[in-house]
Design brief:
The longest helix is centred in the N-terminal third of the chain and has 18 residues, at 10-27. The protein starts with 9 loop residues before the first helix and ends with a helix. Helix content is 72%, strand content 0%. It has 179 residues and is an all-alpha fold. It folds into 2 domains: 10-53, Homeodomain-like (Arc Repressor Mutant, subunit A, Orthogonal Bundle); 62-178, Orthogonal Bundle (Tetracycline Repressor, domain 2). Helix 1 packs across helix 4, helix 5 (79-96) packs antiparallel against helix 8 (125-137) and helix 6 packs across helix 7 (114-121).
């Protein structure tokens, strides 16, 4: 993301972030352009380019901001229930949320675009949110492998179009595997 130039107008920034989500759902990633994002947001292309270099950067920022809100699971006092709540939120995020759909699109694009791959690697959107819940449930035992073991099955389940995800069963199997 570019950091030089004039300060951002928060109103214009939010308009661009909403526009990219809308366009993704309406026309898809490949048909979306920086011009179409600017037009939808009712800002100039120069305004969009002042803050972001590519449509992937705009989409990644929008997805990252929304994911932090959508995947936040407060401490209920029952770590097992918190893990289940997180997996339910993750499944909903990946399957139905515009931000989750954006994240999946970026992961797909990252398979053939090195710049998008680097962007996705720059911030572990899912891992960061999962780690917060896992550290409450398994203090001192959370590393990248544990995080991947926790979220991987849900990601696979959603990405492969399977229905009937049972978060409670997944949490029980996960806890058995880490003990």
């Amino acid at each position: 993301m570019n950091t030089g130039g004039r300060p951002r107008s928060e109103e214009a920034r939010l308009a661009v972030l909403h526009a990219v989500d809308d366009l993704l759902l309406e026309v898809g990633y490949s048909a979306m352009t920086m011009k179409s994002i600017a037009d939808r947001a009712k800002v100039s292309r120069a305004t969009v380019y002042r803050w972001w270099s590519t449509k992937a950067e705009v989409l990644f920022e929008a997805s990252t901001l929304d994911s932090a809100k959508e995947l936040a699971v407060g401490a209920s006092g029952d770590p097992r229930a918190d893990l289940v709540a997180y997996l339910d939120a993750l499944a909903a995020f990946l399957a139905r949320s515009p931000a989750g759909i954006a994240y999946r699109v970026l992961l797909t694009e990252a398979q053939s675009d090195a710049a998008v791959a680097e962007l996705v690697r720059s911030r572990d959107v899912l891992g960061d949110t999962a780690r917060l819940v896992l550290e409450r449930a398994l203090p001192g035992a959370v590393d990248d492998q544990v995080v991947a073991s926790f979220i991987g099955p849900v990601f696979f389940w959603v990405a492969s179009g399977r229905g009937g995800l049972d978060s409670r069963e997944l949490v029980e199997a996960f806890l058995r595997s880490v003990r």
